[in-house]
Structures are given as structure tokens and as C-alpha cells.
Amino acid sequence: MGNGPVSAGYAVRGGAVFNRPSAVGAGEENVIQDRLLDLVRRTPGGAEIRVVLYTWREEPVKDALLEAHARGVRVKVLMNHAADTRSEEIYSALTGALGEYAPGKASWAAQCGQGWGCLGTGINHNKFLLFSQVGESRNVVVQSSANLTYHDRIRFWNNAYIAADAGLYGLYDDYFQRLETGIGRTTVPDDDQYGMGESGPYRLYTNPYQGPDALVRELETLRCSADPARPTRIRVAALMFNRTELAERLASLGDRGCRVHLVFRRLGAEVSGLLQGRLAGARKCAGAMTVHSKYMAISAGAGSFAGEPGLKAVFTGSHNYGRAALRNNDETLLRIVDARVYRQYEENFDDGPYLRCPAWEKADGPAKPETDH
């Protein structure tokens, strides 16, 4: 098929978007899904869309991708192996239209090996999309915390970051090609597939990794402000959190005067004990207001971060603060140094889950077995 028309004058709006669960008021549950649909529908024939996703149970984005394929867009989809029955049905529909994976093929759908991710012995927990062209914008990246499920829309707080940036696109392109090498794998992965690349304001970490925790290393460069009028602030939104070294680093920053605020769904017992009484505030977001985002927003204030006074940065991605995310899963952790983007996450945190969820007043009970989402 020939090239389809490019939306005249359309340019991708970069930045963060957020959905809010129905429990805090209807109207913003579909924000992330609607942006994805808009991007897919504005992708012209001859362009390429690549999707890497863990759990996929709903039809709209699948249908939009198949419509794009019908008008000449190359579509490649890489999913975790059989996350659940509904995801398997979506995968079957995609393979039926796009065909199965073969090297060099223009369009395909594939899964990582049964029981593994593509690079690690855990799961392919990724949630990102790459568009070679949308409207008149090229090299578009979407990094999301959301799976394509009912719960991710209706019951979960989620975020997605969108950028049209050739350097960032190149970092994700390299990672996609590495993931692709794991399709059809027959040998057990070695769980040591660390990657780190930088471009402009971006730094992309990819796991699994058996070395030092990247977030801990980043926080080691944070110097808390001594000026109470311009404090250093750290806002953390985490579905699950059981990495004790990371918890101790955050708690110690709280001890040194950094203002650390946390929203979470579940804490491991050791993490709960480490954080108790050492943060500026914490909220537990569960049930119909589950926090599913995985981000950390840092404002150095009168202190410094990464050697830069007053730096503002955000870490986001698919990466939960659990051990499996670091050691076993295929994951992304994206650092963005941008004051405007920081303000978007700050506003979402303050006016969203931190405002709406109840205060955490006591340590959680024994941790349940870890399950990523």
C-alpha cells in the first residue's frame, strides 16, 4: 500500500499525561488510552509503529493498530507470554492480522518465551510505543506505566510521557532490537542485560541487572537543601516497594532534611519499617484508587542533584520498586531533566493520589508474594 496522508500541520504535543480513577470523579479515566488512539490514527501509511506491552485485555488500541496496518503502516507488537487469557486472545487477533514474527518482516506480533521475559527470567513488563512518524512529527516515543486493561483505566492512577525526539527514539530503538533477539529464545536468560544510554535531557536504564540499583546511585548524588524556604523535595509514586537499599536511601535523605513524600499500594515489611516516621508524608492508595504509576519527581531546591544546583528531574517507566523489576524483568527506567515536565508530575502527585488517598499511619503487615503489574 502507498503512503497515507499526513495530518496537515499536526505536531505531537510532548509532555506527560495522566489518568484518574473513576472513584475520584468520572471524566479522566481514558486520558492515556485516548492519546494512544490519537497517535495511532495520525500515523501515515509507510510509517512504523512498535508496541511492547505486558498485559493487554482491551480492544480499542488493538483495533486502531489493525486499521493502521490496513492503510499501510508497518506494525510490530511484542508482548509478554500469555499474561492472562484475555491477553492471549488479543495476541491471537494481532498475529492473525499481522502474522507471526520473522526477522526482517515488515509487520508481526510476537511473545517472549514461555516463563521468561525476552532478556530476563522474569517477565516482559515493558509498556512503551515507538512511532516513526505521527502527523508531521517524527521519532515519537510513549513511555507509559499503564497496561491496556479496564483496571488500568478505571481503578488505577497511571501516567505516560510522550516526546518527539530523535535521540530518545534512538535509545528505545536500540532496546527494542535487544528485546527482539529474545523472541523464540530456547536457553535460560542470564538476568544481566543492563543498559544505559543518554541523549540530551534523557537517560534510559534497562534491566534486568545484577549490579547496583540505578535509582540508589542517582539518589547518592542528591544534596539536601539547608534553606527551609527552598527545600529539596522528592515525590515518589510506587505500586510496590520492597527494595530495602532504596528505602534506606530515601529515609536517610529524609533524615538530612529533604522533604520526601510517598504514595504507594504495597510496601514490603522491611521497607515499611525503614520508612516509618522518617518521611514528610505518606499515603496508601489501594482498591478503587490504586496507584499504578512508577515515578519519582525530584526538585533540588537550594540543594543540588547530579552536581547541578536547583535541578528538577523525573524518573518514570515500567519499573516498580520491587526486586524482580531490578533483577529479573525486562523493564525501562527513564530519567527526564526538564523543569516543565517536573511540574506536570508535581501537580499530578499533589492534586491526585497524595490529596485523594488516606494517610499511612502504621506499618503494613507481612508482605505478600511479589506480583508486577
Helix content: 25-40%
What does the oligomeric state look like here? single chain
Mean pLDDT: 94
Task: Give a count of the beta strands, DSSP E runs of length 2 or more.
Answer: 18
- β-strand amount: 25-35%
Residue runs with pLDDT of under 50 for 5 or more positions: 365-369
Shape: globular
Structural class: alpha/beta
Largest sheet: 8 strands, mixed
Describe the structure.
The chain contains eleven helices and 18 strands. It is of the alpha/beta class and 373 residues long. Strands 1, 2, 3, 4, 5, 6, 7 and 13 form an eight-stranded mixed β-sheet that branches. An eight-stranded mixed β-sheet has the order 8-9-18-17-14-10-11-12, with helices on both faces. A two-stranded antiparallel sheet has the order 15-16. Helix 1 packs parallel to helix 2 and helix 7 runs parallel beside helix 8 (269-275). The two termini are 37 Å apart.
